[in-house]
Design brief:
The chain has 497 residues and is an alpha/beta fold. It folds into 3 domains: 220 residues, Growth Hormone, Chain: A (Up-down Bundle); 38 residues, no CATH class; 192 residues, Rossmann fold, CATH 3.40.50.150. It has 16 helices and 11 strands. The chain has a 7-stranded mixed sheet with strand order 7-6-5-8-9-11-10, sandwiched between helices. A 4-stranded antiparallel sheet has the order 1-2-3-4. A hairpin with a 2-residue loop joins β3 and β4. The longest helix has 55 residues. It starts with 17 loop residues before the first helix and ends in a 28-residue tail after the last strand. It is an enzyme of class 2 (transferase). InterPro entries: PABS (IPR030374), PABS_CS (IPR030373), SAM-dependent_MTases_sf (IPR029063). Belongs to the spermidine/spermine synthase family.
Length: 497
């Protein structure tokens, strides 16, 4: 591979002492690294909410960006002779692409029908620009004061890694809760453009001659203007994209700390013919449909409630109140505990007239207690404290395909559920449909068995599993063959939806 001649490394004319100049460069490395990681996490978060399967989206973003960083490092070799101008243009373009990446994904998903291609292209572009930063910064810091290359690299990477730590913690705990995904990206782009522009336009301004300085200044000004204007139009953009995805009957849209909740259609049955059937979407996934909601939850709850004692009932998920409504229809229920991770779902189910009409205000019943916590952690702490056991457990979670909480379908979770059940307790689980995604259904079945429970499939249309604590199997004679009972024979028509 033929490399270009080494750039001239001379002492740069700085407006401050050399030591302070190096400090400014390292500070810019810190800020740019923080912004780069925010872009990365933002891409993963937006892609997971739009497409689902967070593991796949994170793998795609990380692998493409790391590969692109290597490509960007090679391409940056051609810019070393003009390191200051090159770094300025790289940061301006990175701020524009990274800051607008979330809006680009939303626009592609809403109006083009998919976001995978845009996700890969955006990840590659951001990765290439991030990879181009380090060679240029290495050249700039050596121009301030020549030093051992190993020491210079150590300083740069130290600032880079610390900045990545700060960016990684700032995004989920500060930016996302306070500003949301789209505004967070745009504001991060503004910070990125200011950090890069300040280093070049002030610290290395003598390296820019004549028109080059004004062209770079104009580029930074255009980028900052576009990002700031974008923050002013985030609201109308989200509304237009939401209507393109869900239709014109969007009635409520709420961003919680965990997800986006969207209600479409009329609030009452009388409004459904004209305004559309009531539907609840959680991060773009249909979670509830008005005409089917009661039948689905009745099919899930009734077999477990009719199978024995039902004094104490635990509902995992179920913040919409529909499973609670079905549970309260049975006599003898003294206590119902609802463990819902997202308090926004419970708040919406209590206040929205459409959801409240479906659940009939079940969440306000004095026998019902709502706990806003992660169900896995809450159940583990309860088992450790040896608290009273439950007669019935209802897992009112979405079917395992595309589920946002895979650990709630794990052997560990079902093992905790088995320990929290009374001797005659029952656990009802929504497991999907054998005719649709058979692998998901039978994976849940096998996981329940591995956790010491005896599952039995039931339901028509949708498929559920009713599990009880396993009892020791009677000994079999030598040579006796065990035959597998076909699942269809276990589905009682009484529990058909």
């Amino acid at each position: 591979m033929i490399d270009r001649p080494q750039p001239y490394v001379g002492s740069a004319r700085l407006p401050v002492p050399a030591g302070l100049g190096r400090g400014f460069v390292l500070a810019s490395v810190f800020v740019c690294a923080a912004c780069g990681l925010v872009y990365e996490l933002e891409l993963v978060a937006v892609a997971s909410s739009l497409v689902g399967d967070s593991v796949t989206q994170a793998s795609v973003v990380l692998s493409v960006m790391v590969f692109a960083m290597g490509v960007g490092s090679l391409l940056a070799k051609r810019l070393r002779c003009h390191a200051a101008a090159g770094f300025g243009y790289v940061e301006a373009l990175l701020a524009l692409v990274g800051g607008g990446s979330a809006m680009a994904l939303y626009a592609s998903f809403a109006w083009l029908g998919g976001a995978r291609v845009v996700l890969v292209l955006t990840s590659f572009t951001i990765g290439a620009l991030i990879g181009a930063e380090m060679p240029l910064l290495m050249t700039l810091i050596q121009r301030i004061r020549a030093q051992d290359p190993g020491g210079a690299v150590a300083d740069l990477f130290a600032a880079d890694y610390v900045g990545a730590l700060v960016g990684g913690l700032t995004f989920p705990f500060l930016l996302l809760p306070l500003a949301g995904e789209l505004t967070s990206g745009l504001l991060t782009g503004v910070v990125n453009a200011l950090a890069g522009g300040l280093v070049v336009q002030w610290l290395f301004r003598h390296d820019l001659r004549g028109r080059a300085r004004y062209r770079l200044l104009a580029a930074n000004g255009c980028v900052l203007s576009l990002l700031l204007v974008g923050t002013a139009f985030v609201g109308p953009f989200e509304e237009a994209a939401r209507r393109a995805v869900y239709g014109d009957d969007v009635r409520v849209a709420v961003h919680t700390a965990q997800q986006e909740l969207v209600l479409t259609g009329g609030a009452t049955r009388a409004e459904w013919p004209a305004a559309g059937e009531l539907r609840l979407f959680q991060d773009g996934r249909l979670a509830l449909r008005g005409r089917q909601a009661r039948a689905v939850h009745r099919g899930l709850v009734r077999p477990a409630m009719e199978g024995g004692p039902r004094d104490r009932v635990l509902i995992v998920g179920g913040g919409d109140g529909l499973a609670v409504r079905e549970v309260l229809r049975f006599r003898g229920v003294r206590e119902v505990t609802v463990v819902e991770r997202d308090p926004g779902v419970v708040r919406l189910a209590r206040r929205d007239p459409g959801l409240r009409a479906l659940n009939r205000g079940a969440l306000d019943d004095p026998r019902v207690g709502v706990v806003n916590a992660d169900p896995f952690d809450w159940l583990r702490e309860r088992v450790r404290s040896d608290a009273a056991r439950f007669d019935v457990m209802i897992s009112a979670l979405p079917a395992p395909e595309g589920s946002a909480g895979p650990k709630l379908y794990s052997q560990e979770f079902y093992g905790l559920a088995a320990r929290a059940l009374a001797d005659e307790g029952r656990l009802a689980v929504r497991a999907g449909a054998p005719g649709g995604r058979a692998r998901d259904f039978w994976t849940v079945d096998a996981t329940l068995r591995a956790a010491g429970l005896r599952p039995c499939p039931y339901g028509a249309g949708r498929r559920f599993l009713l599990a009880r604590p396993a009892k020791p199997a009677p000994p079999t004679c030598l040579g006796e063959r065990r035959t597998r009972v076909p699942p269809s024979t276990l589905m009682h028509p009484r529990y058909a939806e």
